[in-house]
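Data availability (excerpt). The following record was deposited with the supplementary files.
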Amino acid sequence: MLEDTAVPDDVLTADDPLYRELYDVRREAEAMGNFIDRDVTQDIHALRAAAPVHKGKLRELLGLPMTYERHQNAVGRLHYTALGYEACEAAFRNPQVFSNTVQMNPKVGEKGTGLLELDPPRHRAYRRTVQPMFQMANALTWWRAKTIDGIIARLIERLGREDRAELNIEYCARIPVYTITTALGLAGDEALRFRHAYLNSTSASRSVTMEDRMRNRALVDSVLHDLVTARRKERQDDLVSFMIEAVLRLPGEPPRPLTDEEITTHAKLVMVAGGGTSWRQMGITLFALLTHPDQLAQVKANRDLVSDAIEEGLRWDPTAPFHYRLVLEDIDFYGHALKAGDVLELGLGPANRDPSRWDRPDAYDIHRPKLTNMAFGLGTHRCLGMNVAHVEMARGINALFDAFPNLRLDPGAPAPFMTGGLEQRGPSGLPVLLR
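Predicted structure:
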């Protein structure tokens, strides 16, 4: 159990100050050191119009402060930046040349790394040990029954006590973190403290001392180790129990179960990804609808359009708009001679607004022709949790419209806007009137 003398009886619906600490988009970016204070959309359009790939880091090309390095394995390497859809797709679909090992901690190496840092075929083998639980059939059944629907119902009941709300903190922030925490097998009321401890156990936050980081890392490892130990003794209906039963089939090695370390590494990944991106993306979709009242009215009237609204939100403003790849061998790539050891920055967000693929790319339009966008990535590393995220957003948005058919922006509150870092985006807030 996570120790805290002031844990409310029901953290999900409590007015806990940790929500504002952990789920403020600007504060998150400032803590990471990658906050930007201007809209760079038109600057990126100009760069992409000049060429689909540029030499240099995007921050350099945009004239932004060079205060942030996302991956230690990318430091000191020559960077290139892909902004066109076709170029990004080509890199995503060629993991033999464009490698995810750029995310690997050079001090750790492959041992102890997770899905995000691995390339095929090892990545494929590890992913298969957990992927069945994230397929759409399970997202629509197990995830809804186990976590999503009950969480949403409790939050809707809480919102119904008032006439106005700030949906970013009171709704969007709470659904994914509780969904993934309870799915793993932890108690729901541990969700907020566990996420706080995990985020403060990594090198991402510059505001955390090394002593606090080590203390939080030990706490996270202890909680997950105790959970795995308990499930090895007695299985339950949760992700950790599923992973204990899974069989890992690495090429050239005999099949075997996952180790405790491999299970906890999986658990950390789904915790940080599942609890750290879906909330912003749900907020982006609601922000888009609330700031486009005509389309909001159409979606309220025809719920078949909820899925289209989510997909267009993913295209229009993906919450994680940039990925990185390490070049493994020399290659001529869209007019540039990339060398082994270089880094390629992939602009998923810019690719999603490539005018060669979408008309009026800056417009949010739920009726535009359906084309694959890159919000969840492509190829080998397409987002493991995308189906669960879709179901969370769809169920969450439908429940809001069912309970509050007159939902609209609060004209008496500051107008919300998109903010955050270059590498993660979200709305400044979602102040609404419920009735």
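Summary of structural features: The first strand starts at residue 53 and ends at 55.
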